[in-house]
């Protein structure tokens, strides 16, 4: 890809990099991509929570990626985290601050760091939105009040100005959660909200949560029913009529494992029995 973009004089931006395979070699390859900083998806602040959400990356891998970036001349890294993940506690939130601090300390402990420059660690926290056809389709989203409390807790836990925080508006995330797992009744809400002037809602300056709340009230529905409610494993979900190949039993098993913080190995090494093997031709392990 890089030789092609270079030849075509196309400027390639790299939104975020995988931590588990970031290397000096990759850094050399992307040297031609003009970027002021590198972005890594760290996902969660503690190993326990990264295990729970099945992100098979370790703190050492995160630090090692940052070390490689700093040794390669970068002084700014951006880390993506998710806030409000299932099983998350305030300790996990503090872990985001602790990890960010370790990256700052790592920079200043490196003898080969870029001389005369200071480090900048940007921490971006998206709010977790449970989605259909995932192990967390049964999970409640944290309420907007709880997310705000976690955001404040993180703000209090960060002790250095080298770390800058940003996050999503909890009301927007609530609407995302409602629409992600909505049922047919939401059609009336969307229509009503549109009649009240709701358009271009993903642009912050156009998003009017008060009008959405009015639309829900007019239709006799409660957003919390969709966003903040745990679904029982035997509840019939609106999307159960769609067969994506992966079984509901698999999602249930994975959700249970998440609550035990037990990661599932990459299925290229060991099949986890998701159901896709018996679905269609050539889709997975048996054909690899
Ligand atoms: S190897 Fe195939 S059947 Fe097994 S978990 Fe992966 S995709 Fe599913």
Characterization of this structure:
The protein folds into three domains: 1-168, Transcription Regulator spoIIAA (2-Layer Sandwich), CATH 3.30.750.200; 171-230, no CATH class; 243-288, no CATH class. Helix 5 runs parallel beside helix 6 (144-157) and helix 6 (144-157) crosses helix 7. It contains eleven helices and four strands, in the order H-H-E-H-H-E-H-E-H-E-H-H-H-H-H. The protein is an alpha/beta fold and 288 residues long. The model has no long low-confidence stretch (mean pLDDT 90). The longest helix has 20 residues, at 90-109. Residues 267, 271-274, 276-277, 284-285 line the site of iron/sulfur cluster.
Number of helices: 11
Could you tell me the number of beta strands?
A: 4
Count of individual domains: 3
- What ligands can be seen in this structure? iron/sulfur cluster
Gyration radius, in Å:
21 Å
Order of helices and strands: HHEHHEHEHEHHHHH
User: In percent terms, what proportion of residues is strand?
Assistant: 5-15%
Low-confidence blocks of residues? none
Based on helices, strands and strand pairing, what is the structural class? alpha/beta
- CATH class of the largest domain reads Alpha Beta
Q: What is the CATH architecture annotation of the largest domain?
A: 2-Layer Sandwich
CATH level-3 fold name of the largest domain = Transcription Regulator spoIIAA
Helix content: 25-40%
* Multimeric organization: single chain
- How do the strands line up in the largest sheet? 1-2-3-4
Average of pLDDT: 90
Q: Write down the overall geometry.
A: globular
Terminal-residue CA separation: 25 Å
| Sheet with the most strands, sense and barrel status | 4 strands, parallel
């Amino acid at each position: 890809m890089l030789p092609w973009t270079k030849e075509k004089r196309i400027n390639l931006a790299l939104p975020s990099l995988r931590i588990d395979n970031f290397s000096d070699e990759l850094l050399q390859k992307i040297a031609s991509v003009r970027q002021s900083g590198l972005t890594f998806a760290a996902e969660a602040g503690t190993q326990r929570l990264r295990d729970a959400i099945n992100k098979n990356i370790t703190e050492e891998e995160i630090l090692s990626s940052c070390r490689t970036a700093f040794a390669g001349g970068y002084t700014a890294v951006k880390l993506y985290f998710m806030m409000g993940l299932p099983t998350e506690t305030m300790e996990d939130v503090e872990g985001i601050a602790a990890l960010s601090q370790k990256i700052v300390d790592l920079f200043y402990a490196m003898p080969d760091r870029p001389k005369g420059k200071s480090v900048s660690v940007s921490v971006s926290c998206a709010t977790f939105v449970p989605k259909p056809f995932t192990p967390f389709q049964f999970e409640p989203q944290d309420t907007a009040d709880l997310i705000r409390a976690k955001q404040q807790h993180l703000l209090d836990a960060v002790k250095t100005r080298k770390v800058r925080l940003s996050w999503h508006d909890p009301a927007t995330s609530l609407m995302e959660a409602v629409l992600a797992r909505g049922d047919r009744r939401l059609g009336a809400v969307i229509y009503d909200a549109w009649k009240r002037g709701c358009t271009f809602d993903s642009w912050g300056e156009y998003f009017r949560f008060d009008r959405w709340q009015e639309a829900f009230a007019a239709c006799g529905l409660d957003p919390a029913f969709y966003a903040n409610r745990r679904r029982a494993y035997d509840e019939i979900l609106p999307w159960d009529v769609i067969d994506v190949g992966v079984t509901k039993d698999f999602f249930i098993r994975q959700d249970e494992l998440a609550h035990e913080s037990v990661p599932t190995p990459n299925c290229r090494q060991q099949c986890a029995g998701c159901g896709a093997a018996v679905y269609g031709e050539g889709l997975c392990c048996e054909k690899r």
